[in-house]
Amino acid sequence: MNNDLYTYTLRIADDSLILGQRLSELCGHGPILEEDIALTNIALDLIGQATTLFEYAATVQNEGKTADDLAFLRYEHDYKNVLLVEQTNGDFGQTIVRQWLFDTFRVLFYDALQHSSDTQLAAIAEKSLKETKYHCKHSSEWVIRLGDGTEESHSRTQDALDLLWRYSDELFFMDETDQAMIAAKVGVDLAALRPIWMERIQEVVQAATLTIPTNNWKQQGGRLGKHTEHLGFLLADLQYMQRAYPGMQW
Amino acid sequence: MVTVTDIWHWLEDVSDPEVPVLSVVDLGVVRSVKLNGNAAEIVITPTYSGCPAMRVIEEDIRAKLAENGISDLTVTTVLSPAWTTDWLSENGRKKLKEYGIAPPEHEVDKSVLFATPTVVPCPLCNSRNTKMVSQFGSTACKAHYQCNDCLEPFDYFKCLR
Ligand SMILES: [Zn+2]
Asked: Structural domains in chain A?
């Protein structure tokens, strides 16, 4: 199998799955009905994207595994999502800031990936980009509404940004897998996306009257399978049924 | 002797499980139909990545063809070119409105932050004095609107491009 292509696809899939799982925790618990519906719709899109990506990863891996095997039956260190997406929902401000940092990245990423020489990844990106633009508009508008809202909503949103900013660096993490994929014209050069991402983030931060933290301490490791303490709890929920009743189907 | 035209005709009786007034042909999710002797191949494309209706649609297509004596059927899913609301047929748009769901305006509401939402006429009283309640509605493909004149809430089949 093509190890680089497998890992590359898995990383994208895991970002979608883990963030989709986080958002689906809010089903029935959203702050207002419209947001409950919005966040679970976004979760559904993300899990749909993850399904197609896992199916493709399983094909590339060629060991007879299914998308479900990859989603439900790996151990914590085998998940390659960025740390940002596994962070807890916190209050609504934290949920939205996490989403906005990720969506802003994802729009740029899919936009570039749709030109991949790998036709399946290009097709998934083309499809997913349309949905992700809606997500990004939703989260960006909420960051502005909350940041430029009441004193309470402003301070909570700023706290969320202070907390999550340290994980934003990892969105642009690249290693030899990325280099190999870029050389094959399959992957995206994330360094090229970074200034555009920063510009879009700053635009929203300014409108939201927020401040980008000056603390430059950054945290990464998720792409290599080294996670924060939150992922294990999330996986316990995610995997429970398949672990308790192996091979179960609805 | 079954023809490709017959199959297209049968597919007009297979409805979208979430918007039953639309057939899968109206919705534009059937990309192509091929027939090779008694073996048929139907290519479908999802509306949204996570649309839970897709699996049901595939099963319903199988059932419909089996009913008409075709059991050797391959259903293939393709992603590209990605489905957009432009694939929705004129007939489909008309049926949506009659059903009380506003059909997609030919305008995407997602590029500019806080842009004035697309004006969507009320499917019940035709008033253009409506407001968007939420970009996200009862299913992935719909937004939630309300009419300021007749006060009825309604679904808008949002434009995807
Ligand atoms: Zn009305």
From this structure: 2-213+222-244 (1.20.1260.10)
List of chain B residues whose C-beta atoms are within 8 Å of the C-beta of residue A35: 134
User: Within chain B, how many helices (H) and strands (E) appear?
Assistant: 4, 7
The domain of B18 spans: 4-83
Instruction: Calculate ∠ Cα B106-B122-B51, nearest 5°.
Output: 60
The confidence score (pLDDT) of residue B111 equals: 56
DSSP labels for B95-111? HHHHHTEEPPPSS---S
Among candidates A48, A140, A144 on the partner chain, residue whose Cβ is nearest the Cβ of B51: A48
In Å, how far is B29's CA from the nearest CA of chain A? 14
CB contact under 8 A, A47 and B50: yes
ipTM of the complex: 0.86
* Residues B54 and B114 placed together within one structural domain of the fold: no
Q: Strand, helix or coil at B84?
A: coil
User: How many domains does the structure of chain B reveal?
Assistant: 2
Residue A37 has what pLDDT? 94
CATH of the domain at B67: 3.30.300.130
Are residue B10 and residue B74 in the same domain, yes or no?
Answer: yes
User: How far is residue B74's CA from residue B83's CA, in Å, rounded to a whole number?
Assistant: 20
* Model confidence, pTM: 0.93
